[in-house]
Design brief:
- The protein is of the alpha+beta class.
- It has a single domain (2-136), classed as Nucleoside Triphosphate Pyrophosphohydrolase (Alpha-Beta Complex).
- It has two helices and ten strands.
- The two termini are 19 Å apart.
- This is ADP-ribose pyrophosphatase.
- It comes from Brachybacterium vulturis.
- Keywords: Hydrolase.
């Protein structure tokens, strides 16, 4: 299934948006599934608005990778193609966990992000680089 990760930075690139997932308590950037027929960058912006009530715009595609298969508690199985976008917040929105998928939403200094897995830590590093090319996992 096609999915997006939205690595949202403030305009000064000093803070990143993160949400704490309700299902496992992990801190992550905003993630979500692309709706049928939806443009991927628009999906990233929509997910940020739905999950954290932060307005943003997508600046560039950072990374494309296939994620490992996932089995959900109800037995459903899925595998995602992740398109990670660097997004910039429009102004100084105060994030809130808006849709029940997360218990917290807040800004973190980019030099002191919340504990995140290797994938999200890598994507934050890519967002802070000045390179414009997309990275492809090999």
């Amino acid at each position: 299934m096609p999915g997006v990760t939205a690595l949202v930075l403030d305009p000064a690139r000093t803070r990143m948006l993160a949400v704490r997932r309700a299902d496992d308590g992990a801190w992550t950037p905003v993630t979500g599934i692309i709706d049928p027929g939806e443009e991927p960058a628009r999906a990233a912006v929509r997910e940020v608005a739905e999950e954290a009530k932060v307005a943003c715009h997508a600046l560039r595609l950072l990374e494309v990778r296939t994620l490992p298969p996932v089995t959900y508690p109800n037995g459903d199985r899925a595998q995602y193609l992740d398109l990670c976008f660097r997004c910039e917040a429009d102004g100084e929105s105060m994030p809130v966990p808006a849709d029940g998928e997360n218990t917290e939403a807040r800004w973190f200094p980019v030099g002191a992000p919340p504990p995140m897995n290797e994938r999200f830590t890598r994507q934050l590093s890519l967002a802070l680089e000045d390179h414009v090319e997309t990275r492809f996992r090999r």
